[in-house]
DNA sequence: TTGAAAGCGCTAACAT
DNA sequence: ATGTTAGCGCTTTCAA
């Protein structure tokens, strides 16, 4: 068995409560005593048992993060950043994925909910009702999902899209295609349409499709029919499908067609040509979401009734264009 | 507060121990009683508190997995597969990364060790001594690291390499280059050298480098000097660097040079041209590693002295070539 | 400033 | 087959 608080207590010649305080409320114990305890603890290799702590009611010290798909290259950097941030704040992060299916998401939530102090649900597939019910039982933050009354982190593509439109305009493009592959409630289409119209760029929307490589391959064959010289894809994976098929068709990128992705995953920087894309900073979103959850946990603790708060917070994360080699001047025609 | 075993007990009109047994030893309670308990539990939305369970000594129901880098595209599918497997077996998986640095790995281990029943250490940076010490304190499985006395999962590239050599030979290649970017103790070089020699293929080794995209870019410029017509890269990322630079140099892949990666990450299937690579099945390795750890946990529980076992198990995971578009006949010359 | 003791939810003797 | 109860390690009143 591991070393317990009692052994530290007897080694330091104090009671267990003093040892406990030495860790959780250091200023309540005499400096000399505290030092003696800390030394004894170090000597014995003591560290508090988290199970006992959380049983006692102190919370689990763990944040839960449910993402649609761990294997989607967009998420690993976010997970990594959130782990780092959380550790810094004394938390651990427990990650699970929902596979974009409600049943799996419920299972994932059930599996982690008793082990965490709160939950970050990314693009949740759950109904509003269920989310509200869940939020009533534990601190909750949703990302990329708007549910009134639940704290939210929202990714805004507006800035990145506007920059993309500007770049394409400056390069002389006139007709563009957007490959849409969003679930309805997450659609990326609307804001894009507006940004492009504002600059007098025509934008045809294809889809909605599944956000897969093959979607890009398929959509690429449709670009010519629209007489478009630029393509914005739903994400980097789809954009790579476009690049792939353009190469097959003997269409040069960016000479004949410019291609823009979204997410700035690893894929974008290692493709050939490297992919111009709209970056969403993983560290920022991870940090903001983690902090928001911790804040929500803090507000929930020691509150009796259900949230009579003012409006629940909404944090917005920006985006920006990362110009790389897949965009360039429109063909002379 | 959440619903406890006591509330279920009174709702079902039985004692807490009967409720406990209804969950942990169903056959020890009368079917009718059990059903009544299960109904009451469902009604109340009861689920056992894992903190209480583990405090009681029942283990945490969690497996720890420390990988070098969550953001390395090789790992997410493995993490995902291990989660799935573990959930199936009633476990949760807690993942952390070591960033390839001993200090970070120690911190990660410290952060999770009290929350898990055992640990899978992937390509651990720790010294053998530390690993032995750790193994003395908790069930341990190492992956891609050989430490006598510690259960181990080992990835064997032999089969995949042999198939690669055969393919290149059949395509008429004679001179090849291997871009090595391994830490010494993990080196992929030796077995490759042997496989190629066995088929009378000349293999020059470049490096060791860091396993990054830029390494591939750099190494690509060196291939011509070796008069090689085929390149095997340390992993897919490095291979993409090669593809990228070959395109820059106006060298056609696979017409002029064939390129082979290792890992079969997402990158390989979405590159242009798609990348021939050596696949290590993420599900297999995740399953085997998870199962081995659970087995090790089971053997440790209820054993008194330190392991006087027979030799600790070593599980070997195979590999195979996935032919795609980046390999083809050697140029006629 | 420090100590004694109750109790968090659960399981496993032990008793019936 | 079911009930009673001690105790896992810790924090936190309450007392001194």
TrEMBL record, chains A, B:
<dbReference type="Pfam" id="PF00356">
    <property type="entry name" value="LacI"/>
</dbReference>
<feature type="domain" description="HTH lacI-type">
    <location>
        <begin position="3"/>
        <end position="57"/>
    </location>
</feature>
<dbReference type="GO" id="GO:0003677">
    <property type="term" value="F:DNA binding"/>
</dbReference>
<protein>
    <submittedName>
        <fullName>LacI family DNA-binding transcriptional regulator</fullName>
    </submittedName>
</protein>
<dbReference type="InterPro" id="IPR028082">
    <property type="entry name" value="Peripla_BP_I"/>
</dbReference>
<keyword id="KW-0238">DNA-binding</keyword>
<dbReference type="InterPro" id="IPR010982">
    <property type="entry name" value="Lambda_DNA-bd_dom_sf"/>
</dbReference>
<dbReference type="InterPro" id="IPR046335">
    <property type="entry name" value="LacI/GalR-like_sensor"/>
</dbReference>
<keyword id="KW-0804">Transcription</keyword>
<dbReference type="Pfam" id="PF13377">
    <property type="entry name" value="Peripla_BP_3"/>
</dbReference>
<keyword id="KW-0805">Transcription regulation</keyword>
<dbReference type="InterPro" id="IPR000843">
    <property type="entry name" value="HTH_LacI"/>
</dbReference>
């Amino acid at each position: 068995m591991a070393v317990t608080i009692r052994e530290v207590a007897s080694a330091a010649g104090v009671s267990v409560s003093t040892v406990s305080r030495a860790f959780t409320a250091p200023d309540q114990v005499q400096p000399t005593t505290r030092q003696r305890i800390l030394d004894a603890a170090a000597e014995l290799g003591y560290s508090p048992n988290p199970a006992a702590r959380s049983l006692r009611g102190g919370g689990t010290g763990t944040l839960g993060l449910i993402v649609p798909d761990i294997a989607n290259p967009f998420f690993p950097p976010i997970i990594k950043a959130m782990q780092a941030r959380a550790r810094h704040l004394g938390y651990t992060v427990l990650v699970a994925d929902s596979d974009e299916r409600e049943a799996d998401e419920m299972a994932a939530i059930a599996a982690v909910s008793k082990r965490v102090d709160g939950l970050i649900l990314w693009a949740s597939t759950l109904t509003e009702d269920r989310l509200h019910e869940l939020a009533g039982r534990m601190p909750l933050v949703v990302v990329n999902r708007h549910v009134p009354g639940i704290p939210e982190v929202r990714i805004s593509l507006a800035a990145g899209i506007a920059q993309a439109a500007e770049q394409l305009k400056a390069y002389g493009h006139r007709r563009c295609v957007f490959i849409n592959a969003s679930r309805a409630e997450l659609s990326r289409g609307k804001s894009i349409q507006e940004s492009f119209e504002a600059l007098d760029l025509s934008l045809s929307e294809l889809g909605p499709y599944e956000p897969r490589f093959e979607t890009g391959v398929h959509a690429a064959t449709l670009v010519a029919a629209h007489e478009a010289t630029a393509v914005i894809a739903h994400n980097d994976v789809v954009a790579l499908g476009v690049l792939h098929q353009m190469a097959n068709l003997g269409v040069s990128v960016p000479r004949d067609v410019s291609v823009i992705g979204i997410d700035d995953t690893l894929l974008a920087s290692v493709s050939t040509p490297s992919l111009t894309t709209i970056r969403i900073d993983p560290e920022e979103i991870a940090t903001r979401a983690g902090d928001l959850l911790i804040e929500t946990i803090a507000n929930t603790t020691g509150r009796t009734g259900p949230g009579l708060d003012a409006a629940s917070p909404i944090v917005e994360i920006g985006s920006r264009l990362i110009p790389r080699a897949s965009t360039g001047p429109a063909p002379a025609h």
